[in-house]
TrEMBL record:
InterPro entries: AA/rel_permease1, AminoAcid_Transporter. The keyword Transmembrane helix applies. The chain crosses the membrane at residues 12-32, 44-65, 86-114, 134-155, 176-195, 221-243, 264-289, 318-346, 367-385, 391-411, 423-447, 453-470. It comes from the Bacteria. Keywords: Membrane, Transmembrane, Transmembrane helix. PANTHER family: AMINO ACID TRANSPORTER, SOBREMESA, ISOFORM B. It is a multi-pass membrane protein. GO terms for cellular component: membrane. Coiled coil: none annotated. This is Amino acid permease.
Length: 482
């Protein structure tokens, strides 16, 4: 009896694909990162501008990807697009970066966020509860819970696409409804609002003085403009872009979507537009219920908890913790479900572990799922997942820019190919994203060089790995001929 499927089963509808886009985007970022944005730009106007710019970049990139998804509606998504537009090396570098940092580090960061907020309800799983210590190395209950979450969701997804689809649709629906409810209640229920007070800051950008390399609560604010302002916006967008990322995960599972040439492009547009609008309105709600200084310095740097406390009183922390648990649970399910499909396609091309290219009897790449889980779990133990955000954002935007450049390349090199869905606003909107993405990366290197250069180093480290892999494949092929 055959224990392995030979192909993916197209079983996801447009609504399922849209839920994967939205569910993968909404994790913990929207509940946290506005704090750092306000510390960088210091005004209500620029807080909203940062989220609007991130939304524009996200939606423009998503609708540009729609053209690629119609041309190459198969598993692997961005890996396939880069390989077809340029050459296999570019595709491999994306897959390599995804396995070593983009997908796996994001899974780890979201899992740890789940643990952190679970500790609001169950203090015994907090980050200060150490289960093992060896010198300066500690393993906390929060890290173990994060790993347990990754293992559970990985196991669920090895049982077939149907279970992952049910989890994704259910949890995404709940968190969209919860966020919408929080926004509405914020505007309707809060006893005292700070709207007029906060908007007095307008677009007068100010930045907090730094001391010993960190922001000080009682420090002095000073006006910023020009290059410093652009740098502050770029640094701020690390968080907002990270919060808006992972929308492209739906392209990884193209082979499992019904009518992918139509539905992937539509799901990218509907999913990203919905989430970006919700993010902007959520920040408007923060400005309504909290003074700007409290957005910059909420207790524990958790702005959503402060807002929820203002709306619901003492129960606010528990309510928002439950919302983030639901949000991060669903987000990680989407990340885990989609990521392994990239490694499956790479393995089929002879560029990844051979077992990653085998489907189990449920028609999912089980070995690739578990390999991804192991790397993500190790990153949970590293304790450095917060520092990885700069690196993730930098690497992700580099590959987004390259992929959108690929649209221009393919329009010239393969004009005869069927394009059931063309990039809206071509060539202006795709070119706008390329310019914005390059500016973002340049200023990130200038203002946050340490982790961005580490990210670039990880990408470049994939070049010798690629040629070693190619040589090994040639050697094995020669051996099989004799």
């Amino acid at each position: 009896m055959n224990q392995h499927a030979t192909a993916f089963k197209p079983s996801l509808r447009l609504i399922d694909a849209t839920m994967i886009v939205a569910g993968s985007m909404i994790g913990s970022g929207i509940f946290i990162v506005s704090t750092d944005i306000v510390r960088n730009v210091g005004s209500a106007g620029w807080l909203i501008v940062v989220w609007v710019l991130s939304g524009i970049m996200t939606v423009v990139a998503a609708i540009s990807y729609g053209e690629m998804s119609g041309m190459f509606p198969r598993a692997g998504g961005q890996y396939v697009y880069l390989k077809e537009a340029f050459n296999p090396l570019f595709g491999f570098l994306y897959g390599w970066s995804s396995f070593t940092v983009i997908q796996t580090a994001t899974i780890a960061a979201v899992a740890v966020a789940f643990s952190r907020f679970t500790a609001y309800i169950v203090p015994g799983v907090g980050e200060t509860v150490f289960l093992f210590s060896l010198g300066n190395f500690h393993i906390s209950a929060a890290q173990i819970l994060a790993i347990a979450l990754i293992i559970f969701l990985t196991y669920t997804n090895t049982r077939g696409i149907r279970g992952g689809k049910i989890i994704q649709t259910t949890f995404t629906s709940v968190k969209l409804f919860s966020l919408f409810g929080l926004i509405v209640l914020g505007f309707l229920v809060v006893k005292h609002n700070f709207w007029d007070e906060n908007w007095q800051t307008g677009f007068h950008a100010v930045q907090l003085e730094k001391s010993a390399g960190s922001f000080v609560k009682n420090g002095n604010w000073f006006p910023i403009s020009g290059t410093i302002l652009i740098g502050a916006i770029a640094a701020s967008m690390v968080g907002s872009l990270f919060s808006s990322d992972a929308w492209n995960n739906v392209t990884f599972i193209a082979a499992e979507i019904k009518n992918p040439k139509r539905n992937i492009g539509l799901s990218l547009f509907f999913g990203t537009l919905t989430v970006c609008i919700i993010y902007i309105v959520t920040n408007l709600m923060y400005l309504y219920v909290l003074p700007l200084h409290e957005i910059a310095f909420p207790g524990g740097d958790r702005v959503a908890v402060a807002a929820s406390n203002a709306i619901f009183g003492k129960a606010g922390a528990v309510i928002i913790a439950a919302m983030i648990m639901v949000s991060t649970f669903g987000c990680n399910n989407g990340l885990i479900l989609a990521g392994a499909r990239v490694y499956y396609t790479m393995a089929k091309d002879g560029l990844f572990f051979r077992k990653s290219g085998i489907l189990n009897k449920k028609a999912v790449p089980e070995w690739a799922l578990w390999a991804q889980a192991i790397v993500a779990s190790l990153l949970c133990l590293s304790g450095g997942y917060n520092d990885l955000l700069d690196m993730i954002a930098f690497v992700v935007v580099i590959f987004y820019v390259l992929t959108i450049i690929g649209i221009f390349v393919l329009r010239k090199t393969r004009p005869e190919m069927s394009r059931p869905y063309k990039a809206y606003g071509y060539p202006f909107l795709p070119a706008l994203y390329i310019c914005m993405g390059c500016i973002f990366c340049i200023f990130l290197i200038i203002f946050k060089p340490v982790y961005t250069l580490w990210g670039l180093g990880i990408v470049l480290a994939g070049i010798p790995v690629y040629f070693i892999t190619i040589q090994a494949r040639k050697t094995n092929h020669r051996s099989n001929e004799f």
